[in-house]
Amino acid sequence: MDASAELDEPIPYMARTRAYYGALGYPPYRWAHSGDVPFASLGKALGESCIALVTTAAPYRPDKGDQGPGAPYNGAAKFFSVYSAPADGSPDLRIAHIAYDRDHTRADDPGSYFPLAALKAAAAAGRIGRVAARFHGLPTNRSQRTTIAVDAPELLARIRADGADAAILVANCPVCHQSLALAARALEAAGIATVLMGCAKDVVEHCGVPRFLFSDFPLGNAAGRPHDPASQEATLHLALALLESAVAARTTVQSPQLWRPDPSWKADYASLARLSPEEIARRRAEFEGEKHRARPGRGASGPAAS
């Protein structure tokens, strides 16, 4: 396959991050995989359903350093347990704590990674019954065991308490996609229908989920193109259509939207070709520092790919 043809394909995030963090001196990460995927049908008409929103974005905390548009990776802004907040306002959520695509997007429009406004508009238009009273944040946990045994059950309990019939989960970085895929599996096994919106196709399909809306956009834009309400509305409506139309697990729908006609942007994420040995050493030291900022006094093993 020539280079231009390869760029027409989705970015292979698992292979890219394996090579990238290997060059930084970390052991290879084993991504979650399962052959069996649970599937729950939507129990009532979408127009009568209560829909919960699940995000990996973090509430803004002014005391935790730069979390603004284009901010560098900020380990201090990470969160490590499920949180919930009222959905009736306009929460200030940021994604500076995760490895979104900082080369090609700035995370300066929350609508591109947190589609609460679009979901409320869908409720106002009668497309869904209502938005759940709370939205929920799920940690981007590299420990699959913790996600499965701790975070996913807690998320399930909160969504059940809200009386939600289904959930939309919106991913950002590669590990976000895995964490939310594991959570979607747990929700479906408990009878709650889900759709995962994301940009890392290989990570999600390797793990195995019931429904996946894939947008071939830079990481951090799973809910649509930034500053483009029409793109965000169209992306959400594709997710809602998938929620009600899928009849079996592992149903993937790809958004027809393009980030831009030229796919050359796909060559940049976790690209070793751009890095000198000195830059690789600098990034290794930077990652180690951020891990200690994220959990003061606790060493973390492996790459901070989230």
TrEMBL record:
Residues 297-306 have a biased composition (Low complexity). Residues 286-306 are annotated as: Disordered. It comes from the Bacteria. This is Glycine reductase. The lineage of its organism: Bacteria, Pseudomonadati, Pseudomonadota, Alphaproteobacteria, Hyphomicrobiales.
